[in-house]
Amino acid sequence: MQSNNHTRHPEQPAKQLDLPQPPPAPKAEKHSRTAALRTWWNTAWAEGGMLHARWEDLRRAPKDGWHGMATWVKTTLGLAGFCAIVILLNGAADVLSEALYRLATAIPTVQIGTDTSTGVLAVVDQPVRTYIAQHSAGLAVSASALYALWQLTGITALVLGWLTRNNGVRLTWTAWGAGTVWMVWTATPHTSRPVAAGLAVLAWTLLSAFALRGLTLRRRVGYPAARPATVTVRPEIHILALIPVPAAPGDDHTDTVRPFQR
User: pTM of the entire structure?
Assistant: First the structure.
């Protein structure tokens, strides 16, 4: 019987199989990405590259002006300006609302209908306070807030009428003055109404010299100066005129109308 030469002894370990090769080290991949990024950066900043062109647009923008600068620069500036305006308006709205709130909360310390003003001003001011206090019961707004709104409306119409000469502002000033005179006439005692209303009309008329500045009821004639009509001669235009031609002797027909080219 033949013996097997390849008999494996139990004490000999089994032959291990070949394992797959490990992946390459990540340093090489990182190095390739860095090189690619550096290549792209150098290409973009080279003459004619994307970043170089954008930089040239920014550099030439002050010299080219608004109409000549690149579109993307104008868009960026417009968006930045719009955002700045929104932020400013938001802040201004907060400040204005806070100021109005403080004004509305501080006004109730002034008692409506009491003698808080003196002199000639009290002749007009006290009837207005009294009228507002008497006719503001049941409203969601306090009498003090209505009195402050009345003062703010008059001052705003006076200042804007002087500055802008706007007809709407002038109409507001006129309505405010008429309402003030009516409140003075209604809230003043019967024996003193003519004097109080007369002082209110006088004060309103004097202030109207500023609020209605430039307003005139006189019709303007020849203003602006009429310009003479411009006559344009067009020699290429021909006008056909019909000239009657007398008939020859012995002809019974009426006059013949022949065209005449001028």
Answer: 0.45
